[in-house]
Amino acid sequence: MQTILVAGAGKSSIYLIEYLLENASRNKWHIIVADGDADAIARKIGKHSRAEAAVIDINKKAEREPLVKRADIVLSLMPPHLHILLAKDCLKYNKNLITSSYISDEMKEMDAEVKAAGLMFMCEMGLDPGIDHMTASKIINSIRKVAGLILSFKSYCGGLIAPESDTNPWHYKFSWNPRNIINAGMDGAHYLQNGKNIEVPYAKMFENNKKIKIPGLNALAYYPNRDSLKYLELYDVPEIKTFMRATLRYPAFCRGWNALMKLGLINDTDQIDTTGLTYTAWVQQKIGYRGKTGLEKHVAEMLGLPEGDPTIGLLVWLGIFTDESLPGGVKSSSDILLELLLRQWKMNPADKDMVVMEHEIEYEHKGRMITLSSSMVLKGDGGDHTAMAKTVGLPMGILASLVLGGKLKPPVGVVLPVMQSVYRPVLRELEHFGIIFKDEVR
After folding, report:
1. Do the Cβ atoms of 339 and 187 come closer than 8 Å?
2. In angstroms, rounded to a whole number, what is the distance separating the alpha carbons of residues 437 and 442?
3. The domain spanning residue 226 has which CATH number?
4. CATH number at residue 64
5. Does the pLDDT at position 175 exceed 90?
6. By C-alpha distance, which of 252, 220, 251, 249 is closest to 160?
């Protein structure tokens, strides 16, 4: 019997755990699900005969290490900064590791040791990063086969609300880690455009966002995602002139978020004494406004917007101009905003989310410029069964299955899923779950 350790039973874990349990009897797997929340584990595994609940503090070595030692492979859906704890355990006990998060500098530094041990530490094996790497690599390699010269690569991805569940003016609800939404873009972005390195600071991230049309959807907006240039070598496109990875949102979201940022309401370093403070008083304090009336008008003037601009309507809808008391305790502005958004952007049980991804590649073939668009739109099934959870968790589960079943020789080192031996079988299996890309050439 082979043992699989799944670390993390949060929002993104349900499809991964269900996939493993559905295949456990046939493959003689034993599935250990570890988390600090016993109820979260119980909701995922029920009373399955091949599942084991492990309620642990992941930070405690004595609770964590014995589970890693028992496992044949470790799958981590823990917060990104905790992957390194499991990685060190996996190296110590000679176990393969799969995570869905961006590769960290600490993880990179382990590469030589991981290679020497003959292990696979597969990072960025989720949606974005993950499915984006695999599908992009597949497209790039197919273009190379026809001797195409790739000049531009743009990749867009967003976790959104499905149109039938879109009931607020921001056109957004939380389908994954809310804290990640608050922190999105804070490190700025770096990409290549027409041969020039472009750097975008956080203060400019949500200004004048360009639009993109995905088949079957209303126009979306996008903003550049982190440091795109670190993937240039990985994708091996030395001739390229434009290279950008971007996040998709609806235009209203970008306008509203830009306003919140300019008002200083996404600050995670300030300290606010919320005792007796209302949302209106918080906003007044942040912008230094001492007037008794006309706060909305003053904010519009600060933002350079005409009175009655829809952006002010977005802020009004959030509730930042109300006399409702703030949550108690000392918090940062980001914490205050997050608690407000958790209420306003909460998904109802019947709501469905939607994941959208598109690659747009321009290449030259026999003197002719060709544009290839490859897009995927996937809606969730409602409740905890979100499209986000499906696209983050299933690639990890499929890779683990292939490795344990001896159908895939694990690539050695701290790696990303850009090799054909990985992306071909994983993408093929994902199609059975409706994760399918449609190509258009023009």
Report:
1. no
2. 16
3. 3.30.360.10
4. 3.40.50.720
5. no
6. 249
Pairing type for strands 210-212 and 220-224 reads antiparallel
Helix residue ranges, H only, 173-230: 178-183
From the CB of residue 3, how many other CB atoms can be counted at a distance below 10 Å? 18
d(CA 68, CA 3): 10
Q: What is the DSSP secondary structure assignment for residue 231, as one 8-state letter?
A: G
- The span from the CA of 35 to the CA of 57, in Å, is 7
Lowest-pLDDT range of 31-35, 198-202, 212-216: 212-216
Same domain, 117 and 148: no
Q: What is the DSSP letter of 278?
A: B
pTM metric for this prediction: 0.93
| DSSP state for residue 353 in the 8-state scheme | E
* Tokens coding 324: 């409702």
Whether residue 142 sits in one domain with residue 117: no
Task: Answer yes or no: do 352 and 327 share one domain.
Answer: no
Domains of the chain: total: 3
pLDDT tens digits, one per residue of 238-259: 899 999 999 999 999 999 999 9
Same domain, 145 and 86: no
Question: Residue 339: is it exposed, middle or buried by C-beta count within 10 angstroms (0-12/13-18/19+)?
Answer: middle
Residues 185 and 79 in one domain: no
The answer to whether the beta carbons of residues 380 and 387 sit under 8 Å apart is: yes
The three-class DSSP label of residue 335 is helix
Do 167 and 139 share a structural domain? yes
Domain around 55: 2-123
Q: What confidence category does residue 440 fall into, taking pLDDT thresholds of 50, 70 and 90?
A: very high
Does residue 105 lie in a domain region?
yes
Helix/strand/coil percentages in the chain, nearest 5: 40, 25, 35
